[in-house]
Amino acid sequence: MTNPPGTAKANAAEAGLQVPDPTQPQAPVVVVGAGLGGLAVALHMAQHLPVVVLAKRGLHESATAWAQGGIVGVLGSDDSIDSHVRDTQDAGAGIVDEHTARFIAEHSAAAVRWLVEAGVPFSEDADGPLGLHLTREGGHAVRRIAHAADATGKAIHDTLLQRALEHPNITLRERWMAVDLITSRHLRRRGTRDETPADGPPRCFGVYALDMDSGRVETLPATAVVLATGGVGKVYRYTSNPDTATGDGIAMAWRAGCRVGNMEFIQFHPTCLYHPQERSFLITEALRGEGAHLTLPDGTRFMAAHDERMELAPRDIVARAIDFEMKKHGLDHVWLDARPIVAEKGEAFVKEHFPTIHARCLKLGIDIVRQPIPVVPAAHYTCGGVVTDLEGRTDLPGLFAVGETTYTGLHGANRLASNSLLECVVLGRTCALRIMAEAAPSPGPLPPWDESQVEDADEQVVIAHNWDELRLLMWNYVGIVRTTKRLERALHRIKLLRQETLEYYAHFRVNRDLLELRNLVMCAELIVRSALRRHESRGLHYSRDFPHTLPVSFPTVLTRRARSQDVND
């Protein structure tokens, strides 16, 4: 493959960093996750370091491919860095890190250009910046969203995935799931032929990974490990996320001793299609950005009673408004009506700009140009995660993280629409530069996965039961509207579920379902513990017990020191 625009070598020279000598043998960089964040890191780095990318399921099954709206680019003459930062801060309800928001906004135009030059087929407008059609979504002051109709994530992911498949220095492995990070404490506990790495400062040396086709857990040494596993939407009963969103990276980093931040802020997308045959299909916010109305069954619009911005209010406000109206009127769903767009811009506009939604709904018997769409809120985005800096560094040397797995300070108490794809591209590049600049020690011989104390499971009912109970518990007790009493009850039951899951994990050979349940239970506990620490209603954390407070507040950061006895927890 020819070098993509903004290659690692050029970027490193621009940043004044040294690139490792490619002639020296070196363990690969292992990227856990094949979404936008992971692919961005891999493509920026692969000219100089070998990269192995692990995809838990198929290569196309990532949250990136499900993203409909678009990616922010400060491109238009009516836009500015300051305007984007203000919108990000407003959506984040007072706890956005301004330095992070400004850094990412300043690099937004370059990020979009990199994708354009990489071949992403964005929707075009001859009169638009870079020849792109820009749309507007809730919380944005102007049109600044570059998009590929209503399937932007798929267009970006397909393009970068093809580049990665063509690159001789990138190995992509389907149906490989990371089990745990290999750190100094694993070496101390299990022993190696060379004890030197274990005697030094704590570090990540690689990852244990399950090859789901063979059923074997392999030891993968790594120059660096990058967690790009996405969020934790599957901890809730209703979610717009793919089945891969089980919080794997967050749970692994926490077990390794890294801090996590702002886990109480789970974004519920206001408009997920309500239909028995489609439980995870998202209706993009861009539909409201173009003029669609939210209504009750009789056609009455209700958003004016909740926010002066009406349908263009930030997602947390719209989601709570829908939740309130559903409970007030005893509804299973509300309606999203695109007919006002048709009246203003015509049927052709709706079909051209929202072809995926139009086709999917039409297949289910809903013609969106002639009838409203039934919608409900659903868990959508994890605004917190592993604490990192703007180069993807975690608390553990050798371990990096990018994308929805992380907490960088960008999203605050709520994510501004279309900032997430931007964060992946911008910080994917800086993460790659940092890994190349660090002289990582050779991991040396690493201990193999130890299955000497386990046996084949005789039944899977414990996993299935605990999975279902956890997701329903989180939906009912830790959802859009919370109370302290509900959170305390949830925490009590989560502790019991965690104990049952860990006992099962300790005695039986691992499989994907068990590993995902283990990670979801851990992330559920982190969400609840974080929520109990926030004695206010702010952004996505709305508690009936606490009022909204003044704009100044602080992130919620949980700290845990890794202990040797926690290797298998």
Task: From the structure above, extract its key features.
FAD/NAD(P)-binding domain; 18 helices; five-stranded parallel β-sheet; four-stranded mixed β-sheet; 569 residues; 19 strands; disordered C terminus; 37% helix
Structure description:
Mean pLDDT is 88; it is low at 1-23, 192-196 and 562-569. The protein folds into four domains: 27-64 and 157-265 and 381-437, FAD/NAD(P)-binding domain; 69-154, no CATH class; 268-379, Succinate dehydrogenase/fumarate reductase flavoprotein, catalytic domain (Flavocytochrome C3, Chain A, domain 1, Alpha-Beta Complex); 461-549, Fumarate reductase/succinate dehydrogenase flavoprotein-like, C-terminal domain (Methane Monooxygenase Hydroxylase, Chain G, domain 1). It is 37% helix and 15% strand. The two termini are 42 Å apart. With 569 residues, the chain is α/β, with parallel strands linked by helices. Strands 6-2-1-10-17 form a five-stranded parallel sheet, with helices on both faces. Helix 9 packs across helix 18 (512-533), helix 16 (461-477) runs parallel beside helix 18 (512-533) and helix 17 (484-507) runs antiparallel to helix 18 (512-533).
